[in-house]
Amino acid sequence: RKEVEQDPGPFNVPEGATVAFNCTYSNSASQSFFWYRQDCRKEPKLLMSVYSSGNEDGRFTAQLNRASQYISLLIRDSKLSDSATYLCVVRGSSNTGKLIFGQGTTLQVKP
Amino acid sequence: EAGVTQFPSHSVIEKGQTVTLRCDPISGHDNLYWYRRVMGKEIKFLLHFVKESKQDESGMPNNRFLAERTGGTYSTLKVQPAELEDSGVYFCASSQRSGRSTDTQYFGPGTRLTVL
């Protein structure tokens, strides 16, 4: 079983749609959680950290459920520029800073 | 402020040859990480430097891979001899402080390695 699991998609949605991505992680001792965005043939870039209380950044909302070991990302009012691969990322329990990546979920927003 | 830079951007070599990848972290970042993505798989951790010391090298696949960070500035990752399965994109990342939940890792553009 992979340490971080995501539905690879692709998710094809029209502009203006709301889309949600989910992710599960296997290590209950994991400490930090993130969503990164990766454009085609580019490096991953931090989209947002994910906190237990849930957090929002503009059109993006992230949620963490530690009991279920489940992370989500909601994108409202999708834009063409949101088309990318969204990576669910977990930092392990050690202090090494090692990040564990999911395989990514591909989003294609169409006009 | 300059971001993480990596050189070369692409490298095509034959099986059995040696390749050295370079990473320059963001100035002032003590922590430097190497990751790689092989085709069809997720990005995987290789190792972590704190300044010039290897903090965690649990992800290094085998002894054909050698990473160094002399002087605690830039880092090199050497693959010798390269095998076909080493093909992929090698990312470097840096951060100011590790072990803190607020510590952000900034990624370089990656080196795309193809072993023929």
What is this entry, summarized?
Chain A has strands spanning 4-6, 11-14, 19-25, 32-38, 44-50, 55-57, 60-65, 70-75, 84-91, 99-101, 105-110. Chain A is mostly beta strands and 111 residues long.
The major pleated sheet of chain A works out as: 6 strands, mixed
Distance between the first and last residues' Cα of chain A: 37 Å
Major sheet description of chain B: 7 strands, mixed
Helix content of chain A: under 10%
Low-pLDDT residue intervals, each spanning 5 or more residues of chain A: none
Helix content of chain B: under 10%
Category from helices, strands and their pairing of chain B: mainly beta
The proportion of strand residues of chain B reads: over 45%
Q: How many extended strands of chain A?
A: 11
Tell me the greatest interface: A-B, 23 and 28 residues
Rg of chain A, rounded, reads 13 Å
Describe, in plain words, how this protein is organized in 3D:
The complex is a heterodimer of chains A (111) and B (116). Chain A is 0% helix and 54% strand. Chain A has 111 residues and is mainly beta. In chain A, the strands form two sheets. In chain A, strands 2, 4, 5, 9, 10 and 11 form a six-stranded mixed sheet that branches. A five-stranded antiparallel sheet of chain A has the order 1-3-8-7-6, with no helix packed on it. By secondary structure, chain B is mostly beta strands. Helices cover 0% and strands 47% of the residues of chain B. Chain B has no helices and eleven strands. In chain B, strands 2, 4, 5, 6, 9, 10 and 11 form a seven-stranded mixed sheet that branches. A four-stranded antiparallel sheet of chain B has the order 1-3-8-7, with no helix packed on it. The mean pLDDT of chain B is 93. The A-B interface holds A 2, 4, 31-32, 42-46, 49, 87, 91, 94-104 and B 31, 33, 35, 41-45, 48, 55-56, 58-59, 91, 93, 95, 98-99, 101-110.
